[in-house]
Amino acid sequence: MDDGVVLAIRWDLIRGEYEGRVFLPAVICKRYGITLAQLRYRREVEGWLSARARVVRQDDLVARMLKVLDKQVRRLEMAKDEPFDKQARVLGMHVKTLDTLIALGAAQRNAEPASKLNIDDLRNKVTKRIGQFNSR
Q: pTM of the prediction?
C-alpha cells in the first residue's frame, strides 16, 4: 500500500560510494533505487570522478612536485637574461608546495612521517645551487 511518502535520494552517499569505488554502479543503483541513466546524469552534471579514473596517490604528487622543482632549478641555472628574483620566488613557492604535500602525507593514517633529513637535504641542495648561480 502506497502511503504517499517519497524518500529523498541521498546523492551525497551515492557519490561517496561511486567515487570511492565501494560498489559497482549497477549495485549502487539497486541499493538506492535509481537507474543507471540517473546515476550517469548526476555524475556528468556535478562532475563526479569517473569510476575509471585513476586516483592520485600522495607519493605520486610528491614525485611530480620533485620533478617540477628539478626543472625549475635547471631553468634557474640556465637563466642569463631573466631576473633572478622572479625565478627564486617561483622556486620558493614550489618548495612550499612540496613541504605541504609531504606534511599532508604524514598526517594520513598508516603513512610514514616525512623524513626531516630528506627535506633538509633537498633545501641544502637548492640553497647550494642558488649560491652557485649567484657567484657566476
A: 0.39
